[in-house]
Structure formats: C-alpha cells, structure tokens
Amino acid sequence: MIKFQRMKEIKGDASLRKFFRKKSKNSSSIVIFSCKEKFKNLLVYDSINKILIKNNILAPKLYTENYEKNYIEIQDLGNETIYQVLVRKKKNHFSYFKKIIDTLKKIQLIKNRKIKNFKNNKYSIPIYKKKILFEEANLFCEWFILKNLPKSKKKQFKRKFRLLVKKILSKLKLKNNVFVHRDFHVSNLILKNNRIGVIDSQDALIGSKAYDLASLIDDVRFKTSKSFKNLIYEYYLRSENKIDKEQLKNDFEILSVLRNLKIIGIFTRLSIRDKKKKYLKLIPYAWRLISLRISENKNLEPLGELLIKNFKNRIK
User: Fold this and answer.
1) pTM (two decimals)
2) CA distances from 122 to 52, 117, 129, 171, 233 (A)
3) Of 55, 121, 211, 256, which is least packed with CB atoms within 10 Å of its CB?
4) Within 13 A of 236's CA, how many CA atoms are on the CB side?
5) Is the CB of residue 304 less than 8 Å from the CB of residue 257?
6) What is the spatial distance between Cα 151 and Cα 171, in angstroms, rounded to a whole number?
7) Domain ranges (residues) in the chain
8) 24 falls in which pLDDT band (50, 70, 90)?
9) pLDDT 10s digits, 78-123
10) Are 105 and 56 in contact (CB under 8 A)?
C-alpha cells in the first residue's frame, strides 16, 4: 500500500485527480490518485498511454496499479513541460513547435485503436461525435452564462446559441479518422531527452485532424502572435499533400472557436464549483482567440453577432 503522506504532491492540475512524485535513491515515479471518474483517470489513461507507446510516442509507462485503492503508479517523464521551456527561453520557439507538430503527425498516423487494459478488458477509443462537441460548447451556457447574463436574457441567448452551434457543426467537413488527444497544448507536453512526451491523454477520441492542431495553435495558456500561429499552421501543411486545405482551414477555425467557448465554460465552472479562481485570468485571451477565428470564417459570423450583442465588452 502506497503511503501518500510520504510523497510530494504535484499541484496545478485542474481535474479532481491528485498527483504525487514518489522518489527513491536513483529514480522517481508518479502516483495518480483518483476516487471520482477513476475509470477514465486510471484505466482509460493507461490504455491510451499503451496505445501511444505501442506507436513509438513517448508516454508514461505503467509500473503498478491498485484500482481498488484508487491509484496507479506510472513513469515520471520529468517536470519540465514545453510551456516551462518556452517561458524560460525567449528565442527559437519555432524549433520546439516544429518538434511538437512532428509528434502530432505521428499521433495522427496511429491506426491501432484497441488495447487490453490492466484489467485484461479490451478498450477501444470512441468516436468524437458531433453530439460531444455540442455538449462541450454548451458548457459556455451552463456556466459562463449562468453568472454573466441577466435572467431576462438567459433563456433567449441559450436557445439561439444552441441553434447556431448545431448549424456550425453541420459545416464541419473533415472525417473523424485520426487519434485526437483533445487537450494537446504545451502544458501537456514534456521535454525528455530531446523527445516530446505526451501526458494527460485520458480524454482521447477519434476525430478531426483539425482539433489538436487548433488546441496547440490557439492555446489559451500560451499567447502567440497571429504571424507565429500562421507559421506553425503552414509547417503542419507542408507534408499534408492529400488534405483539402480549405476544408482544414474551415474546420480549424470552427473547432478553435467551439473549444475556446468550452474552455470559458470550464474555467468558470472551476471558479464556481471547485473554488479554483486562477483560471479566470485566462478567459480574456480565450475571447481574443474566439474573435480572431470568427473574423476569418463566414460560417461563424451569426455566432459572432450573437456574442457581440451580449458581450460587446469582451469580444470585438
């Protein structure tokens, strides 16, 4: 039985999980403790890691598990995220993003999407259905609207918002045919021995090529200029000879907006429900990203009009 009080807790995760670093003389490991949603946070997380490792993607290996006691012990990839590297190093950011895009390309080539978990049961990565995308975007209504619109406006806004999101989802063009990490950004990527390690992958689904690309480029946690965003996007396109570039651009912009609406909802929920208020400071940049992508896509114009009408002090 692992004694959590003898280990150092790793703070900063937004979820209900707890992370601990277990150290010995010559090595260390990470212990993840999860009472709530432990199927996803323990069993599914390890299953996804196994799929990544099988495809030569650096991800944490399982050392031990005690599912009944709500924890797993996994490989420690270190504590230097790409985010920390980029903040520390003021130059050559693009060289890191090229390595990240190269890793993303490998992830998107994964074909085998089934694996046996540590309970010896088969796990198959689900499809990223439009229903899920809709429910995620609706978190904006469930949490942000709850606190930021007067009661007289809430009902009408929610009705219009949901109708527009459904219409926008019908404009997505690309197939759901690649591995999607679903939270692919520089805080979930580790630099280890000059390789990119991938963590926090328990939410992975099979979805659009545009999703993780949007998650990386329009990352609410790490601000970049529009020209730098374009540079990363163009680098991704270099080896994409078969993809329809207009369809990719359309889906990239749509998924970026829906994702950042979801993020605003989640960060508001973290503040209200979990008393984690530090994420609120990231919301203004999420609005800027929403505004940027809406301005580039005609399919998003009606949503932009609705948001400007109700939140003109937040979106331009």
Assistant:
1) 0.94
2) 16, 6, 21, 34, 36
3) 121
4) 27
5) no
6) 31
7) 81-115+125-311
8) confident
9) 989 999 999 998 889 999 999 999 999 999 999 999 999 999 999 9
10) no
Average of per-residue pLDDT across 56-78: 96
Alpha carbons 164 and 295: distance in angstroms, whole number? 16
Our CA dihedral for 217, 237, 169, 110, rounded to 10 degrees, sits at -90
Nearest to 252 by CA among 293, 303, 198, 205: 293
| Token pair belonging to 188 | 């979930």
Cα 311 → chain centroid: 25
- Contact, 301 vs 315, CB < 8 A? no
C-alpha torsion sign, points 178, 203, 101, 259: positive
Give the DSSP per-residue string, 253-269. Answer: HHHHHHHHHHHHHHHHH
- Give Cα 171 distance to the centre of its chain: 22
Amino acid 166 reads K
Hey, what are 242's tokens? Answer: 């078969």
Residue 54 has pLDDT above 70, yes or no: yes
